Amino acid sequence: GITGQKGWGRQWRDPEPKPHYDIVIVGGGLHGLATAYYLAANHGLKNIAVLEKGWLGGGNAGRNTTIVRSNYARPGNREFYEHSLKLWENLSHELNYNVMFSQRSHIALLHSPGAIDAAARNYNTMRMTGTPDAEIWDLAALKRAVPHLNYSDTARFPIMGAAVQKRAGTARHDAVAWGYARGADAHGVDILQQCEVQGIARDGDSVSTLETSRGSIRAGKVAFAVAGNTSRLWNMAGLGKLPIESHKLQAFVSEPLKPLLDQVVVFGIGGAHFYMSQSDKGGMVFGGDLDWYKSYAQRGNLPIVQDVSEAAMSILPCLGRVKLLRHWSGLVDMSMDGTHFICKTPLANLYLNAGWNYGGFKATPASGWYFADLIANDRPHDRIRNYDLKRFERGLQIDERGAGPDPK
Ligand code: FAD
């Protein structure tokens, strides 16, 4: 800006597709870009491409509400998300790109003695297994930190306390996509935008060629990281059904306000499903539940607008006259137990990263890190061994709703 934008170069190259790559990642969202970056940076691999049908970050990557936390309690999940949070803490340095990670605290409101007990169990588990910043606050502590919530005894769900993770917070989602893209490109990864995979040719039990809107591309290994479009790609590969449904999730932003809310506040345990934070521009960023019908459309419906606005008013009544600026929707890949998949598939050279439900933003660094490890070494790291498609056959459900002890 100060230089009048003189001498600004491209952040990443815009190459023509090559006829063959050793590794092709389908999907230029956060998970695809992070995977490409770690394949090159951690494993020294070359001849990699990321294929994106639109523009980088045009999917859920640029549509989410940017909450990052690691308050998961199930074995496997807590270590995975804590690893992710530690990667977040160094991400701006790692990428030399300011991802604006703001550890402003995640405050999940508690509305019943049962909710307090359940949260205490989860947060104690976190403390005992390597996540030291899990706290249960009583009402007095909560009122000191966020004095302007609706603390009325006559509220439909009176507030009794909160479960708090102080290292949690928000980040700038576009910057994360751009930072990983620039980092991957600097390691030689070809990032191909406007390159939609439209067909998949197989050679027996392997993928041989991807038919794209920019021509045929042969691939040694293929990795899907297409979030809500996973079932479409899965069908193109001639595979059966997946335990994933595509649903719409909306988000909202208000007109800019003066500083009003310093933390992420969630109204979700035993009450409604609502969460809110304030962006650096001052907009109140918030969201709630799914639209609750399956769709590939990236737009939402009005009943959720009403639902979310009512929840906002019940928690922060001072928002009553604030104008809504925009609302939009993303296409989320909901798995049957709420937990994701990072795994091999029935095809020898096809790898799957999907099932992120409401919560794949926070998972981005660890997801890319472990997916790259899987693709590079052709075996799952111990930490992701249960994130496979066969866990249901083994009777294992990692039942954490993709949302931890509390949503988002
Ligand atoms: P995407 O960005 O959707 O990437 C997939 C890419 O694949 C897309 O760019 C798409 O164009 C591309 N693609 C699809 N088909 C093809 C094809 N045939 N050929 C080539 N490319 C293709 N998570 C959190 O942790 N915290 C939150 O606060 C949070 N809030 C959310 C709020 C909303 C409204 C939504 C929608 C999601 C939210 N999430 C949140 C979830 C998170 O955004 C997603 O789980 C995560 O972004 C998914 O991974 P991705 O970025 O790789 O997906």
Briefly, what is this?
The chain has 408 residues and is of the alpha/beta class. It is built from nine helices and 18 strands.
- Weakly predicted, low-confidence segments: 402-408
Helix percentage? 25-40%
The distinct bound ligands, ions and cofactors come out as: flavin-adenine dinucleotide
- Strands, total number: 18
What gap, in angstroms, lies between the N and C termini?
A: 35 Å
**SS element count, helices:** 9
Strand content: 25-35%
Which class best fits the helix and strand makeup?
alpha/beta
Principal-axis shape equals: globular
- Rg (C-alpha, Å): 21 Å
Largest sheet data:
8 strands, mixed
**What is the overall pLDDT average?**
95
Written as H for each helix and E for each strand, in order along the chain, the element string is EHEEHHEHEHEEHEEEEHEEEEHEEEH
